[in-house]
Specification:
17% of the residues lie in helices and 39% in strands. By secondary structure, it is of the alpha+beta class.
Length: 432
Amino acid sequence: DVIAGFLYAILILVVFHPVVDLIDNFNLTYKYAPLIIIRTAFEMAAVEKIEEQLASLRIEKRSTLSEEPAYLLDIDLSKPAQSESSRFVAVSCSNKSVRVYNRETLNFLREYSSHPGILNGVRFAHACDSIVFSACSDGTVKCWDIRLATQKAVQIFSGYPSNVFISFDINCSDLIICAGTEEVEKDTFLVFWDARGITNCASATKEPLGVYSESHNDDITKISFHPTEPNLVVSGSTDGLVNVFDINKDNEDDALLSTCNSDSSVSFIGWSGKDYNQVYCMTHDEGFCWWDIAQLDTEEPITLLHVLDVRDAVCVENDSLHYLVGGLYHEKADKLFLIGGTSTGNIHLISCSTDGLSLVGTLCGGHSAAVRSFCWNLTDESLLTGGEDAQLLLWKPGAVERSLAKKASMKIASSVQKRVRVHNSSLKSRKK
């Protein structure tokens, strides 16, 4: 009887064990389901709050128009090094100058105009909020110290004789600068420099550390270092390719981690995602691509979203979408947004998800011509925008404008306009 009872117990355990497991799993799921629902609801509420804040952006300040109006091509905020917030705004202009403003008042502080070529980007150092860089088509990247009264660059990073720089960035540790070139005689380069020792080598000229020359075959229009990983950089080109590199590797072949094809000429690139493991780009014919680089070593597809023409995909009531300016990733909401606009100066804020794009809101009454540049400040949820009307605007949620400056329109000589215009028609047809 004892043996029979023992065998019966074993039989019961074998037969009903899967059922017990199922019940246990159900209980676990049931136990934690409310937590999952609460978390999802919390995340959705956070996103909705951010979208409401973006939609409620209003003009707080306008910069005073300068004596020589110019298109505002690129904007960057100084990084809050010692202070709690950014102190300065740097703007690259179509008249070949870099202008620096007070971040809170938008009062003009100083201007650097010793650029023999066209400017293509402006960036502040991460560790020192008074150091700013600019890339120029003359084959140099110049470094300026806004604490000094001099008009001379404190350091010049020179490229090779044929280099024409049209994009650049500096990594998050301020150690490496990278600039991208136009195609010259079938050559296209990513040029790298050691950025250390800036303040100790006044007016010194630095030669490149080296180049990548095999990964693109046309103009390198955009470069963006990873926000937190100093060795990762992504580049975009008119050849349609978006390449991610690990510059710690010994050679270009090993450094190339991934190549994504946008099927069109790249106009803007950026990083997104909680760990910044996603890359997105926009194209000169207003397309949008979004990839998850974390899926490279898996069998999952890396493409999160591919929109051939955002102008057709986003519905804007009583208005239209003419072009894209760029994107911004909101860390708190873990949400990617696009910024687009109209030729009359309206700004459209667009929400991105793997299901598609949707309009969040439209900012009106600010610019009177196309917006060319912007910079997002996560600290106070503010937005800086610059446009072809030569205006620099500061937008904040629920703000009331107190500036006396007035909107104005402007024109620039056609030769310059054609050369610097982001949405150049000639670029739209350059697909490979």
